[in-house]
Structures are given as structure tokens and as C-alpha cells.
Amino acid sequence: MTPLLALRSALTGILMGIANLIPGVSGGTMILAMGLYEEFINAVADITALRLSWRRIAFLGIVGGCAAVAILGLAGAILYLLFHYTVAMFALFIGLTLGGAPLLYRAVRPVRADVLVAVALGLAAMLGVLMLKSDRGFPHNMAMDFTSGVVGATTMVLPGISGSYMLLVLDQYDRIIGAIHDFKEAAQARDISRAKDALRIIVPVGVGAVLGIVLLSNMLKILLRRFHRVTVGALLGILLGSVIGLWPFAQPAGHKALEARSLDEVRAYAKKWSIPDVDRFRDKNALIDYLAQPEVWKRGHRPPIDARAILLAVIMAGIGFGMTAALSRLGGETTPTDAEPAG
């Protein structure tokens, strides 16, 4: 691994970690925008197939390690900014995402009909995801736990799709997060019965996640090798479609950002979004749970939009675009031909 690739990998990991703190943002999108998606897919596919090489291990280690450092080290700052400057933060991520589009566009030139169709299909897929609702009444059973694991894992590999969002769509988010929380508490209390109940959910999810990563990463590796331009075209469509769900003037700060604030701050935030009757809440967690309900935001609540907010959004989007466009070109592009063979 060259020093420039290591630097790009580290910066990608940091952006990926920050993305995981922003509701609705996919860490895979940052990998795609930084021009390292093929390297990432090849590394995951080879390692999950036990085709080990120091290059693959080092690459995933740098990306994963820097993502973890970013999550642990920047969580407080990002959640503060997300709460107080919601519009600016989402505009920044729109720019960061779109900054990878020029790199992908260069990879599919000359643009022919097959690439245009692939871009349209990728864009349509993202629009379909955004149109899904979380109130479809999906069952809560072992088969659905397994399916949730597969879906959650594939969204780790596919750019533009938030894993937590898809679990919310499947109505499984609270069930899985609750099971993890119950297992931690049961382990501390040495409550074997409660731990077993939690594992009945966690194990199928974990098996599905492993299977999803293995199958999808190897499938994408084959597609990128045999149908490179069309596959990159579809990824470009996914990237372009992913920013639609990040429209900065329609995005609440998110559960984690609200948890870090006081009750009075959460009330003031809700009032800024024109949400009525928030003063009746005396418990912060109860208010946050109320604000987490999708129907609350379906009523057309929006923060005030003025010329200053629009100008700030444009500036932040421009900064994000410039950052990713510059960083994605650092050290050149990674293509299937320059990837080191495994072994």
C-alpha cells in the first residue's frame, strides 16, 4: 500500500465515521465519494472469502480504525453541531456526497445509452427507498430477524442507504437495539434467562449480517470486474439519489443529537420546528420518543427558512463538494487493474 493510498484510506475512514453519526447518511457513500469503493469491495470480498493479503487487511484496518476513532473522538462535537446547526450540517453532507460525482463520471466516459440506463436505475432505486414507509406492519420473528441482518449488512456495503433507516423501514430497529441493550444488562447482572432471550434475536441478525456481507461484496466484485462502466453508472445514480433524502430544510437533528441536550433545549428545538404542545412533557426521554415518531414530521413541520439560512446552506454544500472532489483525486483513482491480487 502506497503512502497516498494509506492517507486516502484514513481520510475516508474519518468521513465514514462522521457519516455514521448523521441520521440518514450512509458511510458507504463516503467511501464511494472518495473514490475507494472498488478497493473497499475487493478487500471485503477477498477477506470474507478467506483470500487474505496484507494490502487488504491494512486497507480495511485503516478505514475501520479511523472510522472508530472519528466516532469516539468527534461524536460530541458532531452531535452538538447537528443540534445547533442542523441545516448547515446536512448541507455540508450534500456537498461531501456530490463531490464524488465527478470522479465517477470520469470512470464511465464516454457516456453511452447503457450507462444512462444504469444511472437512471440507481437513481430510481434510491427514490424507491425514500418512498418506503415504516408502518407496513412487518412481523417480529426469527425469519424477520435474519432478514433484518441481511438488509442491515448490505446497506453497509451499498452506498447511499442508511442501515438504521432500513431497519426503521422494516419496523425492526427498536427490537434489535433493545435486544442488544438487554443482552448488555443481562451480562452485567448475570441474568442467563434474559441473556438467552436477547440472543434469540441477536444471533439470527448476526448470521444474516455475515451472509449478507459475504454474498453482496463478492457479487459486486464480479459486477465491477465484468460490467465495470454499467455498475459504476448505477453507483453514480445511487450517489445522486442519496442526496435527495438529505434536503437540509426538512431534516430533524436525530435521536442521538437530542439525547445530548437538556429538556429545555429539546423543547426549544421542537418549537423552532413549529411542533405544538411540547411544554406538556416533563421528561426529556419521553419528549425525544415523541419527536422520534414519523407522523410528527409528516405534518409539515419545518424550521424557518430565510435568506441567511439559504446562503449558509449553499456555502456549506460548496465547501463539502470542494473537499471531497479534491480528496477523491488524492493519489489517483483506484481501478480493478491496479488492485493487488489476493494471496
Helix content: over 70%
The whole-number mean of residue pLDDT values reads: 82
The major pleated sheet works out as: none
The helix-strand sequence is: HHHHHHHHHHHHHHHHH
Shape: globular
Unreliable stretches (pLDDT < 50, length at least 5) are: 333-343
Strand content: under 5%
Could you say how many structural domains there are in total? 1
Structural class category: mainly alpha
Over all CA atoms, what is the radius of gyration?
21 Å
Alpha-carbon distance between the two ends = 15 Å
Number of H/I helices: 17
Describe the structure.
This protein has about 350 residues and is mainly alpha-helical. The protein has one domain. The protein is about 70% helix and about 0% strand. The protein is built from 17 helices and no strands. The model is unreliable at about 335-343 (pLDDT under 50).
Chart the SSEs and their pairings.
Blueprint: H1 3-19, H2 27-33, H3 37-48, H4 54-84, H5 86-98, H6 101-108, H7 113-131, H8 142-157, H9 163-169, H10 173-189, H11 192-226, H12 228-242, H13 255-259, H14 263-272, H15 284-291, H16 294-297, H17 307-327
Helix pairs in contact: 1-2, 1-4, 3-4, 3-11, 4-5, 5-17, 6-12, 7-12, 8-9, 8-11, 10-11, 11-12, 14-15
Structure summarized in a few sentences:
This protein has 343 residues and is mostly helical. The protein has helices at residues 3-19, 27-33, 37-48, 54-84, 86-98, 101-108, 113-131, 142-157, 163-169, 173-189, 192-226, 228-242, 255-259, 263-272, 284-291, 294-297, 307-327. Helix 5 (86-98) packs parallel to helix 17 (307-327) and helix 14 (263-272) runs parallel beside helix 15.
